Structure to design on (319 residues):
């Protein structure tokens, strides 16, 4: 495995994974270390050499298998390469290169959905694999969930909106807080959709220069990074693909 | 697991609050949720308060989790 490639993007991955990891809900109880790595300002190449950050992220129960699937399907040895990290969190054409059988195996066996879901629920997941499921973060958020029951439930909808990678434009900056305009997830006429533009406050406690007018991504109301036009396009495109896929379950 | 939990505020400070969750007291960041008082209910993810909810909503969410 090429661990010292200049193509590493392990810090970007940590920025997106940081918030869900707090109090060890989605990963190992190493959050202070994770933050220290992000705040170190060291480039990804140096951090990959160090090994500690890679160890932490490799232990994330859902993230790591998804990265491995995308990397293996694209003949990439390094699961923390820029392209693989971007594919999972933001989206890219690399998500098109996933073998359906392999993807289903990843879900059923790798993520143990065979044990966690009922036969009926697993059958729905299997159908989705044949209908264009992809290993983008939003696929899991919108299509593999067991939270508070039905999607019409406001709490479930709120949780999905927070759990997806959101994007918005910064209109105001305060002390560790960014005010952004974004379109929230809504349930409209029996389908998931984007609602009207609203203001939202997000926590800005990770390093990175931001200014009013920047488009930023956020995860669980926490700032992740400033988005380029290309990233906005991909994040929107793959999020919509997976919303549409989820809507097939709400016929 | 990407889930949120309803918690009740038992102590409040600047940008932070102590809340009760599963009989344990934990500290959460409250920067995103203004105008909080002791006894208010919050929806939290990890150590971040995301929004204020009513006690009825909190009970409803807790019931959903029990039913899962």
């Amino acid at each position: 495995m090429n661990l010292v490639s200049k193509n590493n993007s392990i810090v970007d991955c940590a920025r997106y994974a940081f918030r869900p990891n707090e109090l060890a809900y989605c990963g190992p109880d190493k959050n202070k270390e994770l933050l220290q790595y992000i705040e170190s300002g060291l480039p990804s190449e140096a951090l990959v050499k160090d090994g500690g950050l890679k160890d932490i992220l490799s232990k994330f129960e859902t993230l790591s298998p998804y990265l491995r699937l995308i990397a293996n399907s694209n003949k990439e040895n390094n699961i923390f390469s820029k392209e693989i990290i971007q594919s999972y969190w933001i989206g890219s054409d690399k998500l098109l290169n996933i073998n359906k059988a392999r993807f289903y195996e990843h879900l059923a066996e790798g993520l143990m959905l065979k044990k966690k879901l009922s036969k009926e629920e697993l059958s729905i997941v299997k159908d989705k694999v044949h209908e264009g499921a992809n290993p983008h973060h939003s696929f899991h958020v919108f299509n593999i969930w067991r939270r508070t029951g039905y999607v019409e439930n406001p709490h479930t909808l709120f949780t999905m909106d927070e759990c997806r990678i959101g994007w918005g434009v910064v209109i105001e900056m305060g002390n560790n807080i960014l005010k952004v305009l974004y379109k929230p997830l809504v349930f409209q006429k029996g389908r998931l959709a984007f609602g009207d533009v609203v203001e939202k406050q997000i926590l800005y406690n990770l390093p990175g220069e931001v200014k009013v007018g920047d488009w930023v991504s956020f995860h669980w109301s926490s700032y992740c990074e400033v988005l380029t036009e290309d990233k906005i396009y991909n994040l929107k495109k793959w999020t919509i693909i997976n919303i549409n896929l989820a809507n097939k379950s709400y016929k | 697991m990407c889930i949120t939990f309803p918690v009740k505020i038992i102590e409040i400070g600047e940008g932070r609050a102590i809340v009760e969750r599963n009989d344990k007291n934990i500290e959460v960041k409250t920067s995103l949720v203004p105008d909080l008082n002791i006894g208010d209910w919050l929806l939290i993810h990890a150590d971040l308060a995301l929004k204020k909810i009513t006690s009825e909503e909190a009970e409803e969410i807790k019931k959903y989790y029990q039913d899962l």
